Amino acid sequence: MFFWFIGTACLAVGFIFRDPRFDYRLLVVGSLVPLIDGFFEDASALHSITTSIVLLGVIMLATSGRKPIRKVLLGLPIGMFLHLVFDAAWNDTATFWWPFTGWEFVNQGAPVAGGGAWNRVLEAIGIAICIWLVRHNRLTTREGWRQFVGTGTLRTIPDRFV
Hints:
By secondary structure, this protein is mostly helical. The protein has helices spanning 3-17, 25-32, 49-62, 67-73, 75-86, 93-96, 117-136, 142-151.
C-alpha cells in the first residue's frame, strides 16, 4: 500500500488544520517512511509511536525560534503519526509501544502486510483520494504543479465537505 497513506494523510491534514500555507511535501514523505519496514519484512521502530514522538521533539528543540523551517519540518512527524493511524499500528502492542514493552521486536510482520485483499480495497480508495486531490489542486497543470513543488501547498478542503 502506497497511495492509501498519501491520500489519507493529505486529506486528514486538510480537514484538521485547514491551513492554506501547510507544506504537504514532507507530510507525504513522513506518511511513507514507515513503509521502509516492509523491506525488512517486519515492523520495527518506524511503527513505534516513540519514534514519531522523539522525531517531533527533536524538530521542536532544533528549530526553536525558527518558525519557517519548523513549519516545513513538522510535516515529517505528522505524516509518520498519520501512517500509524491509517495502518492500525496500535494492534501490535509490542511494536507500537516499543521500547516500553521491551527492546526486542516480535516477528509479526509490518501491519500493512497482514491485510490481504483488504489492502487492495484500501489502496483503491487511496488512489481515488489522490486523483481527487490532484484534480482539486490542479496538479496536472504546469502552474499547479510548480506551486506544489515550490511551496508544498495545496488548496484547503472545500467547506461543503466539512
